[in-house]
Protein 1
Amino acid sequence: MRHRIAVVGGGPGGLTLARVLHRHGYPVAVLERDPAPDSRPPGGTLDLHEGMGQLALDKAGLLAEFQALSRPEGQAMRILDAAGTVLRDWQPGPDERANPEIDRGQLRDLLLDPLDVQWGREVVQVAPGTGDGVLVHFADGRQETFDLVVGADGAWSRVRPAVSSVTPHYTGVTSVETSLDDIDTRHPDLAQVIGDGSVAVYGANRSLVAQRNSGGHVKVYAKFRAPLDWHAGLDLADAEAVRSGLLALFDGWAAPVLDLVGHGTAFVHRPFYVLPESHTWAHVRGVTLLGDAAHLMPPLGAGANLAMLDGAELAESIAADPEDLDAAVCAFEERMCERAGRWAKITMAGLERLVSPDPAEALALFDHVQPS
Ligand SMILES: Cc1cc2nc3c(=O)[nH]c(=O)nc-3n(C[C@H](O)[C@H](O)[C@H](O)COP(=O)(O)OP(=O)(O)OC[C@H]3O[C@@H](n4cnc5c(N)ncnc54)[C@H](O)[C@@H]3O)c2cc1C
């Protein structure tokens, strides 16, 4: 049975779907807006959980390659208070493989390998029920028809309106991201503070988190509660102004902690948006969603894992019932929405505690999920 399947979006979810379908011998069109794989920075590091992202890679036949590339030592997690005192210093055991880290770019390349992604194909609208299937409209004016269109196109999905009218809403927590390169040679003191994995510093309604990527690259995230327009009057393209603004926001914090922000040279503003916790939709023949497009939640280490598991499970559902594509998609949607609803509650509650008026809440959450 040769269905015409289009996956809109070549993120972790879409590529995992395509890769598992490919493994089962199904041709699939991956339609990606970016003009090329390296047209923008791929983003920071991802921890892939044993029963989620790693399970999905296993279903794609890529677990061994992942294990060779990933960084188990990156699971290390240190927590400081605003004065720079170390409160927790968790180190993974030698065989600990529950949540190893991998750079997003490495994960993308691993998944991409044999896939024929169509780059520069921005989808603007999807129209189901057009007789011959689902009509996909592209930004360049072209149109194409498929039997199944999967929206794996992230938070601001252009596929989602075909099945659901919901849109993401702001959580009240925003973040500003910066990067440090060659940390071990350029900033050895900071490298000590960060350790092999991540360091998090919690204050009232704000936190600073730094995460090691491969090659001495570090991503730093300043997270804080603020109205969406907190930067009114501040030019976000002016790195000097943003740095000064952040240093003022974290005024009084210890010098080595503030250096995480002070050494940043470029800053990206990323407000945290979410979809409703129990987002579901009435099934529409020929269109479905996965990953952030279906269940955008706060970035607490679950989103990419869920997107990948969604992708792997949808592919397996299709391969198990090739005669009835619609039944395969319905079965997948039921399973995905139930799981996503649970994780949306967990991550939203987690965000409330990690960026909380009482920094002790963040420490208590850490002790709950990572008992020493
Ligand atoms: C700072 C930060 C840290 C995070 N850390 C983690 C972590 O450690 N672990 C974890 O599991 N999750 C993490 N997440 C969440 C994770 O990044 C997302 O949940 C995950 O990337 C979702 O994958 P996706 O494939 O659904 O969508 P995306 O990764 O958003 O991919 C969507 C793709 O679709 C393409 N696209 C968009 N619109 C169109 C269009 N109209 N036409 C064609 N293509 C389109 C985009 O270019 C993109 O390639 C983090 C998020 C943030 C912001």
Protein 2
Amino acid sequence: MSDQQACSGCGFTHQCICHRIPNTESQIHLVLLTHENELTRDTNTGKLLQHSLKQCQSFIWQRKTPPAELLALLNDETHQPLLLFPSDKSIECQQAVSDTVSERTPLFIILDGTWQEAKKMLNKSPWLQTIPQVHLDVTSESSYTLRRNQDSGHLCTCEVGIELLKALNEAQPAKLIEDYYQHYLKVFQADKSGHALR
Ligand SMILES: [Zn+2]
């Protein structure tokens, strides 16, 4: 691109990688509940999930009430909402899925923000506190390098989605999204340095 305008799809200025966005599908339903601070962070990786997984929706977090469309999903008897939030009462996500009655589609909610923001979102939202909490047993290290002050061991939003798909034996979409994510990280560094990836 020569006009130095950032692509409205992938957000990059010196190259566009929109053609690399995979088109994947999953048995589960994924909801990103996004803190408004994330909207202005170019280091947000939730959008990668949203772009590449058909069953992924994103909503802006509101303290008192869930967005109407999300509320409808939460109350829909064909879904089983599960909140990805490691705590002393969370259960492993694959276990949670096998405990779910088969007529219900697991609806995983990922709090899309920093760890501090995620805790705040949960603490301030009674409507989130009633949703069963689940966690991932992740052994792989995060390769997320875009935020320096991030605690090690914390996965970014896109990695959480990838690990969730892996844990639920959805290897194919997980692989495609992971390849795109890894490419995105490399392009991000090049783009911020003012050039295309060489
Ligand atoms: Zn693009």
